[in-house]
Amino acid sequence: MGSEMFGAEFVQFSLTPLLIGTLAALACALPGNFLILRREAMIGDAISHVVLPGIVVAFLITGQISTWPMMLGAGSAALVAVVLIELLRRYGRMEPGAAMGVVFTTLFAAGVLLLEQSNTSTVHLDVEHALYGNLESLIWLDAEGWASLANPQALAGLPPELLRMAGVTAVVFLLMGLFWRPLVLMTFDEGYAAARGLPVTLLSLGLVTLSAVAAVAAFDAVGSIIVIAMFICPPATARLMTNRLGAQVWLSLLIAVLAAITGYVLAGYGPLWLGAANSVSAAGMIATVSGLFLAVAAVSGRHRKGLSRA
User: Fold this and answer.
1) Could you please report the per-residue DSSP string of 14-31?
2) Which of 117, 119, 126, 222 has the most crowded CB, counting CB atoms within 10 A?
3) pLDDT at 301
4) Taking each helix axis from N to C terminus, what angle separates 16-37 and 43-62, rounded to the nearest 10 degrees?
5) Helix spans in 38-151 (H)
């Protein structure tokens, strides 16, 4: 009976948050590999700043605070940001980090000014939908155990964030697979890729746009903490462990999954094991675990060639 109750409680309270966190980690880690190699890893941090004006504009247009208007506003602002970053990088000949810094600080400041001047600062704008998230609240109340996975009525009560995150993750994997060869050529030798006739500008814009879509979708479910960490930590950890791109991508996905699962378990049960009364933030613990993985890889990074051969 105890094991049955534990199984039912796990399905109801932990299964969907765990799946959503894992899917978000995968959706961010995959394009993060190419962003790391292209020195654009901070695009996730940039997007977390530029969504504010999009959220405010969405509220001013619709007059309501709900998920889809906020998501559309945040996504539109993110797309504007990546276009501006590419324009500054390519035609302004700015270093990628400088271009991102200029764009996300300018748009974030514009969002703050718009928030104050439009008299919406006194309204409870639910920025949580796009920035903070609340992974622990995405529970499956209609579940009564593992049998609910085959129950259409119970499945209808799944958190909508799970379906959205699953769809976005599938799109990310599909597009990255379809454009794998052009992305590899563009990443390692942009001049050669252009000489081969590849649309380098469109590919670069497509990569950052896809990253923006993954980031905004993940913000609604898990918050910016996990998003920024997963864009950087798993790919950077894998990069320190191998020099082969294929191996790096698979390692980064494995590390992302391990960080999501380990972090969620430690957030819920770690404090209890240590005698504390309350759990800690799942998003924060997942990011912390991914950072610890990176630290371990960095310490042993000098042996990267040996690890790659092994």
Assistant:
1) IIHHHHHHHHHHHHHHHH
2) 222
3) 64
4) 120
5) 43-62, 67-90, 96-117
Question: What digits encode the pLDDT tens for the residues 153-172?
Answer: 878 888 888 888 999 999 99
Overall average pLDDT of the 226-255 stretch? 91
Non-local (6+) Cβ contacts of 210 within 8 A are 31, 171, 172, 175, 176
pLDDT tens digits for 249-268?
Answer: 999 999 999 999 999 889 88
Report the percentage of the chain scoring pLDDT > 70: 88
Count of CB atoms within 10 A of residue 170's CB?
A: 12
Extract the tokens encoding 160: 């909508």
DSSP type of residue 166: H
Q: How many CB atoms lie within 10 A of CB 2?
A: 6
pLDDT of the residue at 235: 94
Contacts of 170 (CB under 8 A, 6+ apart): none
CB 138 within 8 A of CB 162: yes
From residue 1, give the alpha-carbon distance in Å to each of 6, 8, 167, 220, 298: 9, 11, 36, 36, 46
DSSP 184-208: HHHHH-HHHHHHTT--HHHHHHHHH
- Quote the CA–CA distance of 19 and 114 in Å, as a whole number: 36
**d(C-alpha 194, C-alpha 178), whole Å:** 19
d(CA 10, CA 152) in angstroms, rounded, equals 19
> Judging by beta carbons within 10 Å of its beta carbon (0-12, 13-18, 19+), is residue 275 exposed, middle or buried?
exposed
Cβ-contact 268, 277 below 8 angstroms: no
Assigned token pair, 16: 């969907």
Question: Cα–Cα distance between 264 and 285 in angstroms, integer?
Answer: 7
Asked whether 104 and 49 are in contact (CB, 8 A), the reply is yes
> What is the pLDDT at residue 64?
67
Distance between CA atoms of residues 69 and 269, nearest Å? 36
The CA distance from 176 to 182, in Å, is 10
